[in-house]
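Hi R.,

As promised on Friday, here is the backbone we talked about, encoded as structure tokens. Could you run it through your design pipeline when you get a chance and send me back a sequence?
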């Protein structure tokens, strides 16, 4: 079983065009502001915005060339990064008895056969992008221009197959089996402290979380954004390993998530201003389209991550100013789904498991925050997972049936959120497959998903995984210098996302105890909403 990875030295894919906007934003006021304040952008900044919008891909395969270049590069990186580097398997075998699993077919993930549409940005598109107003204002009241029927909580709750359900009496009776948790209730200071102790965290892991956040604060730009090339901001090149992917929405959202995961919002905690400015930037970057709020800046990766950040911030604070932005971002995801259920870099393309993972997690965050997610969207997402599963749903591939550790980690987590019960033999099989690999020492993308799977499932496998994962990250956090509190590991994702991506992901791995309430078990019963 092996892949045929593209050569390490990728050809010039035009990423230099995407590395940075040509002009820095000039936002006023620069320091203290509320996300309710209007954003006033100078003429220079308008040019910068226009430059970014040229990269925004459109529906129907009519994507900007910059977006395609970005997508190609990301595809190559992601494909290779999905090859998790496995360290020792550990001495312990599976403790749950399973039926026999048939051997998977030989993998054939020749992902180099990607055919890109021949597109280029038209003069009309350029003119249209210039016509976008340079002044972005938050609405005085929620102004949802969703293409869907007006969202109401009762409609969403009436669907028995909905993704994220209210807890019912019958749920409580089956609470160790049926997923009922997963919410944000663990992010209060009190719950965070309780869950750290109850679920396997330590003072050292909590210190590492705070150090990671402190590093992120030091690398936020004056306009509220983060960039994967962290060196050009306040860092001034002092920390090595900048990322190479040029997305400010994706990077800003990725940096916001660990703050939200630890309970810090623009309304609560010591990082109110940091989070506020990040949300301010993110919402200002949204492009209104007939399909919803476009935050891609290149690919659906950024759309998914940015949507999670907006939904979590709204769900945690109930800030009505955020609601229309979060709903529009969700709408864009809904409209970007391929008819067979998945998502990929360009809206409407046949899906892959990793891009699909971010979108489904965004829909889950939306649902838990009281936003509207059509049931047919989540039903279709299940069909996508069916289309890439192997051994009846134990293993998953990247774009077709397979047994790949990265896609399996993503897909098993999605299966949990999409309603599979804890003792479902398919789920248990996938869980044990991940558990027996142990945490990777280089691939934090795999660890991010697998750690959530292991945490939700719990038991001795989780205990064993947790000690190794937790102590490894605590030991490998940069101890000094400007990079103090950050992480970097050499792998494909690390190269593309750099120190900023790696730090955000590692911080969230160490927040696993409270970032999402356990989906199964007594904690889910006690704290289910
Ligand atoms: Zn630095």
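Update: got your reply. Pasting your designed sequence below so it's all in one thread:
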């Amino acid at each position: 079983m092996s892949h045929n990875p593209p050569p390490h030295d990728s050809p010039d894919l035009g990423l230099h065009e995407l590395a940075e906007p040509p002009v820095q934003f000039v936002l006023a006021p620069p320091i203290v502001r509320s996300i309710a304040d209007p954003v006033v952008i100078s003429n220079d900044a308008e040019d910068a915005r226009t430059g970014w919008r040229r990269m925004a891909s459109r529906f129907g395969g009519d994507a900007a060339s910059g977006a395609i270049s970005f997508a190609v590069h990301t595809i190559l990186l992601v494909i290779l990064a999905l090859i998790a580097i496995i360290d020792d398997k550990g001495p312990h075998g599976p403790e749950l008895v399973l039926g026999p699993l048939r051997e998977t077919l030989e993998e054939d993930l020749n992902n180099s056969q990607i055919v890109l549409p021949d597109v280029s940005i038209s003069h009309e598109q350029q003119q249209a992008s210039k016509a976008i107003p340079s002044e972005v204002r938050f609405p005085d009241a929620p102004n949802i221009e969703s293409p869907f029927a007006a969202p109401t909580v009762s409609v969403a709750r009436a669907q028995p197959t909905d993704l994220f359900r209210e807890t019912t009496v019958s749920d409580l009776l089956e609470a160790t089996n049926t997923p009922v948790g997963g919410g944000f209730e663990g992010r209060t200071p009190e719950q965070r402290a309780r869950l750290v102790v109850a679920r396997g965290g330590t003072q050292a892991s909590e210190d590492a979380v705070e150090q990671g956040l402190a590093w992120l604060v030091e690398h936020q730009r004056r306009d509220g954004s983060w960039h994967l090339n962290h060196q050009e901001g306040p860092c001034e090149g002092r920390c090595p390993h900048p990322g190479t992917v040029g997305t400010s929405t994706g990077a800003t959202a990725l940096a916001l998530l660990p703050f939200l995961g630890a309970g810090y919002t623009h309304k609560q905690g010591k990082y109110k201003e940091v989070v506020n400015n990040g949300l301010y930037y993110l919402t200002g970057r949204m492009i209104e389209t007939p399909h919803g709020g476009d935050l891609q800046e290149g690919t659906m990766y950024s759309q998914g991550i940015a949507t999670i950040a907006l939904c979590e911030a709204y769900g945690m604070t109930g800030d009505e100013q955020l609601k229309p932005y979060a709903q529009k971002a969700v709408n864009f995801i809904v409209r970007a789904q391929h008819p067979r259920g998945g998502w990929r870099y360009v809206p409407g393309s046949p899906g892959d498991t990793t891009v699909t993972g971010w979108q489904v997690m965004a829909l889950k965050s939306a649902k838990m925050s009281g936003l509207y997610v059509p049931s047919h969207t989540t039903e279709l997402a299940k069909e996508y997972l069916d289309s890439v599963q192997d051994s009846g749903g134990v293993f998953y591939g990247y774009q077709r049936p397979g047994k790949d550790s990265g896609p399996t980690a993503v897909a098993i987590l999605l299966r949990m959120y999409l309603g599979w019960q804890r003792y479902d033999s398919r789920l248990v099989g996938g869980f044990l497959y991940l558990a027996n690999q142990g945490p990777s020492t280089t691939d934090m993308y795999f660890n991010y998903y697998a750690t959530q799977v292991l945490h939700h499932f719990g038991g001795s496998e989780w205990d064993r995984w947790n000690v190794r994962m937790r102590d490894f990250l605590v030991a490998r956090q940069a101890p000094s210098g400007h990079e103090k509190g950050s992480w970097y590991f050499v792998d494909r994702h690390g190269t593309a996302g750099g120190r900023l991506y790696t730090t955000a992901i590692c911080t969230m791995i160490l927040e696993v105890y409270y970032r999402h309430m356990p989906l199964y078990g007594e904690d889910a019963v006690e704290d289910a909403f």
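One thing I noticed while checking it: The chain has one domain: 15-95+167-527.

Thanks again,
M.
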